[in-house]
Amino acid sequence: MKKKFLAMLMASVMVLGLAACGGGSSDAATEGDAASGDLPTVGVLIYKYDDTYISTVRNSLQAALEGKANVEMQDGKGDQATQNDQLDVMISKGVDVLCVNMVDAKAASGVVEKASAAGIPTIFFNREPDTEVIKSYDKACFIGTNAIDAGKMQGDIIKELWDAHPEYDLNGDGKVQYVMFQGEPDNPEAIARTQYSVEQATANGLTMEQVGETQVCNWDTETAQKAMEAMLAANEGKIELVIANNDGMAIGCVAALSNIGYNTGAEGAPFIPVIGVDATDAAKDAIAKGQMSATVLQDGDAMGKAIAAAALNAASGAEFLDGTEYTYDDTGIAVRIPYAPYTGE
What we know:
11 helices
């Protein structure tokens, strides 16, 4: 009890300091009795709130914890230094378990060092740190997807599209001229999706030919739209396919195409296939309207529920997966939420 009192005292000082620096706000998922301290406290660090897919995970996680835990959640705003400060505050508050969506997965060793020193179980999710970093702490695990699978599914979708629509080969040369939109330059998930989408399409018998350089757009819709507008200005009529690491960038590309009369959804309008990842509502709507070809479902709701189940176990002193339907992959520390292709059919 004395330790808890001291931790709370330290937290009050650090919270004031963080607030002065614009460190973000705390969102409580439970009210009333939940605030009495009878429930465990789950600390959640999000890389940035305005990521559409992560918002799905965040909302699912909060819903799954409602009435079962108090939630301290912070927005890292895409800045690792900010997230580091938020981590310090949560540890000083004495949260029972940490759920961390890293801004920079390469910075996870610092999280592990601090969490292990405090003895706080830690669940990394979505953005996967190095396996050895997670294994260095016996109270850490990862919940997310296998990025390679998303890339391969995009490659399979490309093959299916080209088999079903020979008219997509605009110049009739038997090759697929594509542009690539990548999330981040050093993000392992972005790199894997970029690499394996093309490799899988090639393995399926297609000849892939990239137009221009890979467009790194930081998962952002507006940035991708501007980049696509520039690509179209320089290469209109030469682009046969758009591959994007996520739906946010895919939607930006659709907007750029629509602005010059492509992919409007109108019958007979010119069309360039656009493929994303996540199956966001915006992407599903674009597919239904005939403005986008396909995406790969990354089940944010399922991920949020898995994180919540593991967090509640850890907060009670149990193993992460005790009594759940989840299992680790061959690393022994990672739970994989499966992808699925989505074409709207």
